[in-house]
Amino acid sequence: MKKIGFLSFGHWSDSPHSQTRSASDTLLQSIDLAVAAEELGADGAYFRVHHFARQLASPFPLLAAIGAKTERIEIGTGVIDMRYENPMYMVEDAGAADLIAGGRLQLGISRGSPEQVVDGWRYFGYQPAERETEADMARKHAEVLLKVLEGEGFARPNPRPMFPNPPGLLRLEPHSPGLRDRIWWGAGSNGTAAWAAEQGMNLMSSTLKFDEGGAPFHVQQAEQIRAFRKAWTEAGWQREPRVSVSRSIFAITTDLDDAYFGGDGESKDQVGFIDGPNKAIFGRSYAAEPEVLIKQLAEDEAIAEADTLLLTVPNQLGVEYSAHVIENILEHVAPALGWR
């Protein structure tokens, strides 16, 4: 059994072929898609976060709105770039969104990937300390976030406050119990997956990672997941961790499906460079009739290792079509693979 959700990049464009022509379109349709996905029986609604782009950027108003409009579905991010984040303010926003949703927030964070502008985090007021990298800065922000989410007091109260204080040191409010255990790290390598386990974060692995050995993407990703679980056990955490992988999977059941994605049936892994000299491997897309997809996905080692599968959806094709993509997998593929 697997949890199956969707992952939206939240693009918008004024192209006449796009059904998301503005930021307003994307935000409102994201809410509608989460509601539709819950009605279909999906388990999660996740959203990418990118700055300086015509994509979703400020996740917490969106997550809070979805939390208020739904009852069961998990809501989350995949991922928030911690180079840009004030972890204190983020704790307050995340706590409020999680309380509105009744404890359904699953917050994916990471060191981030190349953005639309050079060193965009500098415009947000952040820069690495001397002899530190931007990745070090992101991990430091994440460590502060995790510590403060534990809910322990750390701030000395004013002896003459405007409002009465509880005894002792103060914590940030609102505090949402349990949210600390629902933080995920988007890892791009085996080493960062192990680091995430040491910090007690769940693992979120996308459709790309650094190439570590030359094996097919799904094999390398499965190795990453096993490295994460080994590090988790060695760290001594008592709870069971969560692991998600994302995939572009399209079951072709209509002529429109074939027109949009029939050409992706021969997709292969790709190798390239996205961040300096390190070679990265990009996982293939899956697009075929359901009976073919079932055979292909049964051989994907990383999906087999994960407990959660996030389906990337073509949000610019509109809510109805994106919901159709999700429904196709839930109805025609998942049961045959034992995911449902």
From TrEMBL:
PANTHER family linked to this entry: BLL6902 PROTEIN, LUCIFERASE-LIKE MONOOXYGENASE
Keywords: Oxidoreductase
Name of the protein in its database record: LLM class flavin-dependent oxidoreductase
Top EC class for this record: oxidoreductase
Organism for this UniProt entry: Lentzea miocenica
Any one GO molecular-function label of the UniProt entry: oxidoreductase activity
InterPro entries, per the entry: Bact_Lucif_Oxidored, Luciferase-like_dom, Luciferase-like_sf
Domain of life: Bacteria
Pfam family, one: Bac_luciferase
Record domain Luciferase-like: where: 9-255
EC number: 1.-.-.-
